[in-house]
Amino acid sequence: MNHETPHSPRTSSVSCNPLPLSHLGGVRPALLTAHQLREHGVSAAVAERRCRPGGPWQQLLPGVYLLHSGAPTGWERLHSALLYAGRADGAVPRQGADPESPGHGPAMLTGMAALALHGFADAPRLPELAAVDVLLPRERRLRSTGHARLVRAHTPPAAEEIAGLPVAPAPRALADAVARLRDASLVRRLLVEAVRAGHCDAASLVRELAGQRLLDEPHVAGGVAALLAEGRSRAEELLYAMVRLHELPDPLWQVDLRLPGGPHLGGLDAYWPEYAVALELDCRTPGAEEGSAGDALWEGHVAKRETLERLGITVVHVTPRKLGESMGQQAEVVRAALLAAAEREPSAYVVVLPQ
User: Fold this and answer.
1) pTM
2) Nearest to 300 by CA among 342, 265, 254
3) Which top-rank group of organisms is this from (predicted)?
């Protein structure tokens, strides 16, 4: 029997006229679920027979069939894991589709598979992945099997679409990958690359790591320190770019302020002395600075801001995320503070020193 020829509706228990499998050639890879095969008039018994040793098909995962006998490609392994997890087509749901309807479940790729699709240099190539991690809601009753490894989440994030596949955002994907790694060097490289390459900001990533209680793991702690340093470096680069691209007056960079013959007032990332406007990057990372040490750090920031403002110095706080997502808007906030300087009372005289 030609394996492209479906059974008749009577023998396959399909009530409507089945579509020939040949219409899929050149459109999608030959990878279908048992349900899709039945829609094309192929019964479970016929599918099983074609998957016997030496047969033209193979069953990659329960209910997921590859309609050729060669080794599956990396893409086919990703797609099959999504099909097993509940998507009828392995694609991102259409806008307006019911997320609970069959074929539009919230399954998405995560872990190393997702990092490879996001373009992480230190992620394995897709054909080299021993397992494909798929993120599912906690209530889904399904077990890991074969190369499909299921990861549970109480509230999965919204999937991103990469190469037509639903993929977890970089912070969640990286946290899921780190949870299974024990190589401290690899963890450090992945965390630093996430920020350096612009996949996500440090705060979002630390928040995900904290949510999975990974911050205190020995193989993660050193990587987080490097991540935070990289996050600040990246934020400073964005700050320099904001001043240059939006043609703001050049400030004094990385300075300390003191009262003449008096106490130290604090360090600043940028200061415009002729306008008495200071800018400070808010690189705090929720989760990494919890507890008394984090509380003391935040209280220090608040006290410094209040002291400077009493002296007539306007303090602008900017987060790395806002610099990355809305640089123009942040530039206008700074510009407004500079323009308002002419309407304010003169500030107290302060000494400006390099950090």
Assistant:
1) 0.72
2) 265
3) Bacteria
* Model confidence band, residue 286 (pLDDT cutoffs 50, 70, 90): low
Mean pLDDT of 56-73: 91
**pLDDT reported for residue 5:** 40
Strand partners of residue 281? 318
Q: Which pLDDT value is given to residue 8?
A: 38
Distance between CA 40 and CA 248 in Å, rounded? 64
**Torsion sign over Cα 318, 322, 327, 329:** negative
The per-residue pLDDT for 121 is 95
DSSP secondary structure string, 125-144? PGGG-S-EEEEEETT-----
What residues have CB less than 8 Å from 98, skipping those under 6 apart?
Answer: 104
Amino acid at 354: P
Q: Which residues of 141-169 are buried (b: 16+ CB within 10 A; e: fewer)?
A: eeeeebbbbbbebeebbebbeeeebbbbb
Mean pLDDT confidence for 180-208: 93
The pLDDT value given to residue 27? 42
- The tokens describing 135, both together, are 């993120």
Rounded Cα distance between 277 and 338, Å, is 7
Which of 212, 59, 208, 223 shows the shortest CA–CA distance to 148?
Answer: 59
The CA-atom distances, in angstroms, between 75 and each of 82, 92, 134, 195 are: 11, 15, 14, 26
Residues shown for the chain: 355
List, in sequence order, the alpha helices (H) in the chain.
9-12, 34-39, 44-50, 74-85, 111-118, 170-178, 184-196, 202-211, 218-245, 292-310, 320-325, 327-339
Dist CA 12 CA 39 (whole Å) = 9
Give the burial class of 354: count Cβ atoms within 10 A of its Cβ; 0-12 exposed, 13-18 middle, 19 or more buried: exposed
User: Which residue would you say has higher pLDDT here, 267 or 24?
Assistant: 267
Q: In sequence order, what DSSP letters do the residues of 310-338 get, joined into one string?
A: HTT-EEEEE-HHHHHH-HHHHHHHHHHHH
Instruction: Find all residues with CB under 8 Å of 243, minimum gap 6, and list them.
Output: 250, 251, 270, 331
Residue 273 sits at φ, ψ, to 5 deg, of -60, -35
